[in-house]
Write a structure and sequence with these properties.
globular; 18 helices; about 70% helix; single chain; mainly alpha
């Protein structure tokens, strides 16, 4: 208990400190360093998770992977005499580098804060779904290169890497069209319409043409579908985050409209933060959609929120907004890890504890 209290106190000090103190080179380097440390301490030395056996069977050649990059990486390490644990560690190493690179394009001093909050809510998926969580940050970088830097060569490179890492990432790429064709004023309304259309399309696929999908039919099996009550429960807190971001943008526009309209990075993060809204109705009944296309975007949400604090010029206002955001984080933690055990009889805490138990840094053999 004492250790947990110390960790919370240290986090609060760093949470406020990185945002409120003068943004010097030392502070930025410290934030990046701590971001790398916490990411690798919690993930790199894991030796077992829910998907470990499945990935090991692919590594050993008992099963096939449809994702080219994963097969290539497995073949490389297998041919050099390594086991699957090295493949896992390679993915975590690359994942951390690309995620932190993405965050640092917007807010170097808040790398630690963004990574810490992301790990708080996505630790299990990051460890379990290594193929998708390599593809996802590659998508983020590819979108950034195209829409912010207009670098078509690097966009093509990272887009190719993302699709080869996990074909499911293709569903994130319509964002590129939405970004260029929908303004901020109408984006939420349009996304809500698209979300209804997507859920109808899913319903048709699920009920009529399921057999066409072949190997993809796995994702439509009953074991991959969540109950309506469970899906709604999960989606509520995700909607709260998106609503918070939507109204935060509204408030900031009151006093900073001209600056915000000219800030490409702000516009990019804001639209990308709202984009997962189109997957929420489908994610209510298909849990993997929610996991990959909505919950994974928490890193974008936190990055946007921390980036947006640059428009809070008064120190008192910034402290207040930081505190409100911290309340959202704490409330989300209680909602995700505490309430399910009382309302649904499901313990998300136990899954995290199992991951800690498999981490040789915490439980050396």
């Amino acid at each position: 208990m004492i250790l947990e209290i110390i960790i919370v106190i240290v986090f609060l000090f760093l949470f406020y400190g990185f945002e409120l103190f003068k943004s010097g080179i030392v502070l930025k380097l410290l934030s990046v360093l701590l971001g790398f440390i916490i990411f690798y301490v919690l993930l790199f030395y894991v030796t077992d998770n829910n998907d470990w056996e499945s990935y090991t069977s692919i590594f050993n050649g008992y099963r096939q992977s449809r994702d080219f990059m994963f097969t290539l990486i497995c073949d490389f390490f297998s041919s050099h005499g390594y086991d699957y644990s090295v493949v896992y560690q390679f993915h975590i190493l690359l994942m951390g580098i690309v995620f932190i690179y993405f965050i640092s394009r917007f807010t170097v001093k808040n790398v630690f804060t963004v990574i810490s909050i992301y790990l708080l809510f996505q630790l299990i998926p990051l460890s379990n779904q290594i193929r998708y969580f390599i593809a996802f940050p590659f998508f983020l970088i590819s979108a950034y290169e195209l829409l912010i830097l207009n670098n078509k060569i690097l966009f093509a490179l990272f887009a190719l890497l993302s699709v080869l890492s996990h074909v499911g990432i293709i569903l994130m790429y319509p964002f590129l069209i939405i970004y260029n064709h929908i303004d901020n004023e109408n984006i939420l309304k349009r996304l809500l319409i698209y979300s209804v259309l997507l859920s109808i399309i899913f319903y048709i696929l699920y009920n009529i043409v399921l057999n066409v999908f072949g190997s993809f039919a796995f994702y439509f099996e009953s074991v991959m579908l969540s109950s309506i009550s469970g899906g709604i429960f999960t989606s509520v807190i995700l909607i709260v985050w998106i609503v918070y971001i939507y109204f935060r943008n509204k408030v900031l526009l009151i006093t900073n409209q001209l600056e915000i309209e000219e800030d490409l990075k702000y516009q990019f993060l804001y639209k990308l933060s709202l984009y997962p809204m189109i997957f929420i109705p489908t994610g209510i009944i298909m849990q993997i959609v929610s996991h990959r296309y909505v919950e994974a975007s928490i890193i974008v949400w936190v990055t946007f929120i921390m980036y947006s604090f640059k428009y809070n010029f008064e120190i008192k206002k910034r402290v207040l907004d930081l505190t409100i955001f911290l309340v959202l984080v704490v409330g989300s933690f209680l909602y995700i890890y505490i309430l399910p055990e009382y309302l649904l009889g499901v313990s998300n805490v136990e899954a995290v504890m199992n991951l800690f138990r498999s981490n040789i840094l915490f439980n050396p053999k």
